[in-house]
Amino acid sequence: MINRPPFQQLRTAENTIPPGVQFIIFAAIAIGVLIVCNIIVLAVYGLQGTMDIINLKSSTPHLVTSLWVIQFLGTTLPIFAAPVLFAFVIVREPGNYLKPGFRFPWQLLLMVFAIMFISNPVIEFLSNLNQKMVLPPWLKWMRESEDNAERLMGVMLDMKTIWGLFFNVLFIGLLTAVVEELMFRGVLQTIFTRWTKSAHAAVWITAILFSAFHMEFFGFLPRLLLGVLFGYFVVWSGSIWPAIWAHFLNNATAVVAAYLFQQKLINENPDDQHLFAAGSYIFSSVIMLLLLFIYRKIAIDKTKTAADINGEELG
To answer: What does the DSSP assignment read for the chain?
Structure first.
């Protein structure tokens, strides 16, 4: 009988956890962390104080700062803590579930930049299509919720100085990209890949959950496309970083555009969904698909080359 080291025994046991059970455990951890973090928010500001901040009551001291604190404690921190706890404590496979490795061709980052740039007309088209959808009367609350969220974001994105721009690029652009990708393209996409035995199914299921998570019905379709792009960036590269880079580019571009518009450095309102001509939608779709094909080819060719080299070394 061979005595295995303790860490190997643990890993063997962990790998027997069915993916469906993993999903339930992860959901429970995410909800639990969310509750704990929001209890902390209530402990800091109190129930009435928290409601005053969320409702943008003008007499609230340090309103904007408090909004950022609530955003971090109530949303950003739980999204980060849940996948990290799950990967390190439950399955103990942070490499497989968080995919933090940098062993991918650097050219993929350039491809991601090009794909995110060329996809803007497609995203606009989906956004316009989404806006034309009519909610039934019993779902009118979703429109009101989105309008309130838009007001909150408008206050948080009111950037009067270059330092405000820098802060928002780091917080909304980078930090949000990191934590959301660890949760969705990291843990959840891995769980669904093992559950469905299909990378394609996992990408689309995760993208649907990613878009639904933001609770913005009128932004569901464009965010679904973004989730699909991020998902394939991870599947083909084997790393979370191309998706984080793409997510950062998307968020940071919106922040910078808002700043430039506020400072009257550009005339086009970044919230305007009619910046591109109809022909641009078709052109954007074709080029985006072509660039995705090239991205996949670069990633797969690099993987095959690395496998051949490893095979020769083993031989």
So the answer is: -PPPPHHHHHHHHHTTS-HHHHHHHHHHHHHHHHHHHHHHHHHHHHHHHHHHHHTT-TTSTTHHHHHHHHHIIIIIHHHHHHHHHIIIIIS--HHHHH-----S-THHHHHHHHHHHHTHHHHHHHHHHHHT----GGGHHHHHHHHHHHHHHHHHT---SHHHHHHHIIIIIIIHHHHHHIIIIIIIHHHHHHHHS-HHHHHHHHHHHHHHHTT-GGGHHHHHHHHHHHHHHHHHHSSSHHHHHHHHHHHHHHHHHHHHHHTTS-SS-TT-S--S-HHHHHHHHHHHHHHHHHHHHHHHHHHHHHHHHHHHHH-
Secondary structure (3-state) at 103: coil
pLDDT digits (tens, 9 = 90+) for 250-309: 999 999 999 999 998 888 887 777 778 888 999 999 999 999 999 999 998 876 655 444
For CA atoms 246, 247, 253, 254, give the dihedral sign: positive
Q: What is the pTM of this model?
A: 0.89
